[in-house]
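Why do we care about 3D structure at all? Because function follows from shape, and shape follows, mostly, from sequence. That is the central idea of this module. The next example makes it concrete: a single protein chain, its amino acid sequence, and then its structure expressed as tokens.
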Amino acid sequence: MYKTAHFLYKLHIPLLPYLIQQLLRVCFSCVIPFKCKIGRNVHFAFNGLGVVIHARCTIGNNVLISHQVTLGGRGGEGVPLICDNVYIGAGAKILGSVKVGNNAKIGANAVVLTDVPDNATAVGVPAKIIVNKC
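And the structure:
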């Protein structure tokens, strides 16, 4: 439904994308604006139940987003940039002008307020980078 709404938005059709966005909100209790940029093979677990995404947010390719995730701003600071091959755990909040690098993982219920480098794992409130010792 998002892809259809985004396609119609790019064609400058104003009403239909908005109606599709509202249908998503009612059916799945999620806010996935048609203005945000979402790459290929992005998967929303449980049909995006409870997901909230800022309209200016950019999400790369091959991203898995669990339920109850928020990707939003922090009082005018900007919005998150999610790179490719990222996993975002259930209930995670990524707020402000944050870049989540390629192949990164965000733990469940983490609150990410700073950048996450490539191939890193961030967990906790506020999120801290942990090192895998494998």
